[in-house]
Amino acid sequence: MARMPPRAEAPMLIDTHCHLDAEEFAADRDAVAATARAAGVSTIVVPAVETGNFAAVRECCVRYTGCVPAYGIHPLFVDRASDADLGTLRKWLESELAGPYPPVAVGEIGLDFFVPGFDAARQEHFFVEQLKIARDLGLPVLLHIRRAQDVVLKHLRRIFGKRAGPGGIAHAFNGSRQQAQAFIDLGFKLGFGGAMTFSGSLRIRQLAASLPLEHLVLETDAPDMPPQFIGQARNSPQYLPAIAALLADLRGISVAQLGAATAENACSVLPGLIKCRIHP
Predict the structure, then answer these.
(1) How far apart are CA 165 and CA 157, in angstroms?
(2) How many helices (H) and strands (E) does the chain have?
(3) How far apart are the C-alpha atoms of 30 and 60, rounded to whole Å?
(4) What are 139-164's pLDDT values in tens digits?
(5) Cross-sheet strand order for the sheet of 41-47
(6) What is the largest distance, in Å, between two alpha-carbon atoms of the chain?
(7) pTM beyond 0.85
(8) Which residues does 189 contact at the CB level (< 8 Å), separation at least 6?
(9) Domain 13-256+260-278 is in which class?
(10) What contacts 24+ positions apart, CB below 8 Å, involve 118-121?
(11) 171-194 tens-digit pLDDT
(12) How far apart are CA 106 and CA 160, in angstroms?
């Protein structure tokens, strides 16, 4: 396994996308959360992927200081979802918005045209209906956009108009500069994480280095998308400071500047984070 670079001193960081409720963390979830916090990660957004894990996501946010929930149906889970699940999602969001652990977004939702055999029509149906829920409730969205950036943009414009109402985050962004600008124009921030750490990811690195800093946020997508410096090991939110240090280096700024800016960006697009940031 490759050796992880030393962690630079950094402010408290926000991981805008981490599946802390995932089965991969079942054996040591308490330790994972504690280690991440000790490493400087003050806030973790935990997105759901289907109605069956809504309760697990909520439990993470009750149990671990700094964790905040998002609820949605992931495009790779729509094959086992039904229209009734859309009703469940709406009711869950409405109920949780009035509770002590309100969701900061609808997510993870979107499209994935990478996995062989995908059903584009079914994915688009669930995506559009969840965009309507987000619109109705005034919540941002956490977008999965793999190999589907232009179709995602089409539906955002159709549901929200030329300027997407609540905005949100284009998670694991790896599109073109033109697509990046299109998401930015619709009020979205762009998520950068493990993929950016690979030396061969030239386009992603170039975008991470050159896009205006006010449009970038940090993420791990743990337990998935491990950064290059851990090899094929399980990803974890504890690696966010090292990812932040790499992005700071690409941009030629300090880790403190990078951390402060990306935290501010996350809070601006996910207003529900502000309370958590003030009271880490």
Answers:
(1) 10
(2) 10, 8
(3) 10
(4) 999 999 999 999 999 999 999 987 65
(5) 13-15, 41-47, 67-71, 105-110, 141-144, 168-171, 188-192, 216-218
(6) 49
(7) yes
(8) 16, 167, 168, 169, 170, 215, 216, 217, 265, 266, 268, 269
(9) alpha beta
(10) 118/75, 119/78, 119/79, 120/151
(11) 999 999 999 999 999 999 999 999
(12) 15
What string of H, E and C letters represents the secondary structure of 115-127? CCCCCHHHHHHHH
Helix axes 120-137, 149-160, angle to 10 degrees: 40
Q: Where are the domains of the chain?
A: 13-256+260-278
Residues in the chain: 280
Name the CA dihedral angle for 80, 84, 85, 89, rounded to a multiple of 10 degrees. 170
Outline where DSSP puts E strands in 224-271. Answer: none
156-164 contacts, C-beta under 8 A, 24 or more apart: 156/131, 156/186, 157/186, 158/128, 159/128, 159/131, 159/132, 159/135, 160/131, 160/135, 160/186, 162/186, 163/187, 164/188
Which SS3 state, helix, strand or coil, does residue 248 take?
helix
> Which tokens is 217 given?
């946020």
